[in-house]
Design brief:
The chain is globular, with a radius of gyration of 18 Å. It is 73% helix and 0% strand. It has a single domain, classed as Tetracycline Repressor, domain 2 (Orthogonal Bundle), CATH 1.10.357.10. With 187 residues, the protein is mostly helical.
């Protein structure tokens, strides 16, 4: 019985991971349950052994995608000499731009979240707040640090969103570069 529970847990996690990647690529409304299950290497029929509804899966996948980004932020910044620069270097990298399924979920999900359920909106808000708190700490918690952190997070997310949306790679690179230069000059 124990092996069965462990296998079910691993399968559940595999489904959530597949959904997490798909929603970062296609948005919350994009992937159908059958597509997610196929991406997880499973059949559609097993879905309801793990989730009550598609909304439950999407909420859990959103939470997972956002948590992964927060974990990545810690890996980048905890031991960095300049945590803000380390975070900005990764966030505004071509690699992050070009691999949305492995990157921060804030840019690709921003517009979709407003149509999501309370769990999705809450998870999104909490991640924005965590990023603001981290960046505020990177800026030194001095006067204006919170406002600067909100400005920085909003600008970072917007820059990635725009750089992914434009159809000109040189312009996309220019967006990332200009924002990188501006954010790293924050006090």
């Amino acid at each position: 019985m124990r092996t069965s529970r462990e296998e079910k847990k691993k399968t559940h996690e595999r489904i959530v991971e597949a959904a997490s990647k798909r929603i970062r690529e296609e948005g919350l409304d994009g992937p159908a349950v059958a597509e997610i299950m196929q991406a997880a290497g499973l059949t559609h029929g097993g879905f309801y052994k793990h989730f009550e509804s598609r909304d439950d899966l999407i909420a859990e996948a959103t939470q997972s995608a956002l948590a992964a980004a927060d974990g990545h932020l810690h890996q980048l910044t905890d031991d960095a000499e300049d945590p803000l620069a380390a975070f900005v270097d990764w966030y505004l990298s071509a690699e992050h731009r070009d691999q949305p399924a492995a990157g921060c979920a804030l840019p690709p999900l921003g517009d979709d979240v407003r149509r999501g359920d309370d769990r999705v909106r809450s998870a999104y808000r909490e991640q924005v707040e965590r990023y603001v708190e981290h960046v505020e700490r990177f800026l030194g918690n001095g006067e204006g640090a919170r406002q600067g952190a909100i400005l920085a997070v909003s600008t970072l997310v917007g820059a990635v969103l725009l750089s992914r949306a434009v159809d000109d790679e040189a312009f996309s690179d220019e967006i990332l570069s200009a924002v990188h230069e501006g954010i790293t000059k924050l006090p």
